[in-house]
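Dear colleague,

Thank you for sharing your sequence with our group. We've completed the structure prediction you requested, and as agreed, I am returning the results in plain text so they can be pasted directly into your records. Please verify that the sequence below matches your submission; if there's any discrepancy, let me know and we will rerun it promptly.
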Amino acid sequence: MRANRMLGATLVEHNLVKVEDLEKANEKLFQIIASQDVRQSTLLGVLSNDMKVVTEEAVIGHVVDHEGIGLIDLRQYDVSEDLRKSVDIGACWATWSVPFDKEDDFYSVATAYYLSGASRKHWEKVLDAPIIWYATTLEMIADYLEKMETDRAAAPGGAKK
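Please find the predicted C-alpha cells below.
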C-alpha cells in the first residue's frame, strides 16, 4: 500500500493525474486488494487501464525524460539462478519492481513504480548495493513474476515465495 500511496502522490505532484482521479482510483484499488488479486493490485493499473486518466506510456516517458533511467524488455531476459531463488516475490508484487541481474556489486532492477520512493527505498535497503534502475510496464513485471513463481514451483523442493 505504501508503494501505491507514494506513487499516487508523485503522479499528482508531477501533474500526471488529478487529485480527484487519484481519490477515485484509491477507492477502486482497495476493492481490488480485498479480492487478493495481486496482478490487479496496482494503482497505476487502475489509473491507466480502468479509469484511463493516464497512460503507462506517459508515466514511463516521464521517468525516462526526467529521471534519466533506461527501458528494459523482460520478456526474453533470463534471470540468474541466484536471483531466481533468492528474490522475495511478494516484495516484487508489492513494489512492482524486480531485480533481474547482478554484475559485480551492481544490481539491475526493473520497475513500473520508479516514481514511488517507497519502492526504490525498499530495494535499496534490501539489496544494500548500488542499483541501476530500468523502467518497464506492469504487464512485463507481472508476466516475469508469474514465470518466476512457476519456475520455483517446478523446481525440486516446491514453491518458495
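Summary note from our side: DSSP finds eight helices and four strands in the chain.

Kind regards,
the structure core
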